[in-house]
Design a protein that fits this description.
By secondary structure, the protein is an alpha+beta fold. It is built from 15 helices and 8 strands. The protein is 47% helix and 7% strand.
Length: 386
């Protein structure tokens, strides 16, 4: 007797059953009203046909359906497939639910499977509501991809500040915990420039919303940041990981199928085109400095370019940046990363910055290119220890 509509609680130990691909088919079979074999093949094709030809996908679907029936997870009556009690329970476990209540296929596809693809299947229904809106989906994609808390649906301004912290920590090779947790130390423009370094194509974004939108489409592997494109990208990723998992031995009831988190597999931060280090035949491997290494290199570079009198020598930040870019190619930091790293090093007392109180017209270009806005001031110089 089918468990559809029974709301029966899950019980008993996990048992061996469907493969990762089989579980996705089982979700479609367990939708309200069940499904024919043709409906299974058609409705799940978008998850697999970017990896398999349509003919190969249909053959795989037929094979997996046969295994589900043989394994006692599904039954076929008058050409229509439905889950058994065991199959309904397996579907619920796969989607992180305590019990199974049948839902329409569009709802399962656009909410339950999207949540599964993002690794959010154990979140409450209230937390998954934003998945139905494009802004909410973009936010959750970015939060999950960069290891941020998904407990609140952060507005773009707060998300930008959090991403700036992630970018700064990565600039230091993830060997420092940045201090401006709420982003108050950086201006909106500086924070957005810094967070923009997390993009596959680092650049300045006009607004926080555009920053979040672009990062979401990149993380989801989507063609653009529309709701349909983001869903397609996530579902394709879910299908691709299911295929990879299914190539091995038969899975326990569920195989890992979560969108890769960029914290675990970080994006290689590359400087923008106008920030590139001098080109070489073979680009050096990125070796990001920790705080102590960064401060030593900056102080050394500043000492060679310092101006002023004994006891008050300092170097324009732009001149120090030129020296660092040429002398530390393995760091592969962009100018905005460098400037924000300077501000953090100053905050932590690893070096000292200073501002230009008296501005000489002859040095205005250096002053403007050296500016580092931070809190309520703007730094222009690196002080040199005597």
């Amino acid at each position: 007797m089918s468990a559809l509509g029974s709301g029966a609680p899950l019980a008993g130990p996990r048992r061996k059953g469907a493969s990762a691909t089989g579980h996705l088919i089982l979700v479609r079979v367990a939708a309200a009203g069940g499904a024919t074999r043709a409906e299974v093949a058609t409705d799940l094709a978008p998850l697999f046909t970017h990896k398999l030809s349509p003919a190969d996908w249909r053959r795989l679907a037929e094979k997996e359906i046969g295994l589900l029936i043989a394994g006692g997870l599904a039954v076929e009556t008058k050409s229509r497939l439905a889950p058994t009690d065991t199959g309904a329970s397996a579907t619920a476990r796969y989607l992180g639910l305590k019990s199974w209540e049948p839902r329409p296929w569009p709802e399962l596809r656009d909410v339950a499977l999207i949540a599964k693809g993002l690794g959010l299947e154990k979140e409450t229904a209230a937390r998954l509501k934003p998945l139905a809106r494009v802004e909410g989906l973009r936010t959750l994609i970015v939060q999950k991809a960069f290891g941020l808390s998904v407990k609140k649906n952060a507005p773009p301004t707060k998300l930008r500040a959090q991403l700036a912290v992630v970018a700064l920590e990565r600039a230091f090779g993830n060997r420092i915990k940045a201090g401006f947790g709420k982003g108050s130390a950086l201006s909106a423009k500086a924070g957005r420039l810094l967070a923009g370094q997390l993009s596959q194509n680092p650049r300045a974004f006009a607004t926080d919303a555009k920053l979040v939108s672009e990062l979401a489409s990149e993380c989801a592997g989507a063609a653009d940041s529309t709701l349909e494109a983001l869903r397609t990208g996530i579902l394709r990723g879910l299908g691709a990981r299911a295929l990879e998992a299914s190539e091995g031995t038969p899975a326990e009831t569920e195989a890992p199928a979560v969108m890769p988190v960029r914290v675990a597999t970080p994006v290689q931060l590359q400087p923008a085109a106008n920030d590139q280090a001098p080109t070489a035949a073979s680009p050096p491997k990125s070796l990001r400095p920790d705080l102590a290494e960064f401060a030593r290199a900056v102080k050394s570079a500043a000492a060679t370019r310092a101006e002023g009198w004994a006891g008050s020598r300092k170097a324009f930040i732009s001149h120090v940046w030129e020296a660092i870019r040429a002398g530390q190619p393995s760091w592969q930091v962009s100018e905005i990363e460098f400037k924000c790293m300077l501000a953090e090093a100053h905050r932590l007392g690893a070096l000292v910055l200073a501002n230009a109180d008296l501005k000489d017209k002859k040095s205005m270009a250096d002053i403007e290119s050296s500016a580092v806005p931070y809190k309520n001031t703007v730094w222009h110089f690196v002080r040199v220890d005597e």
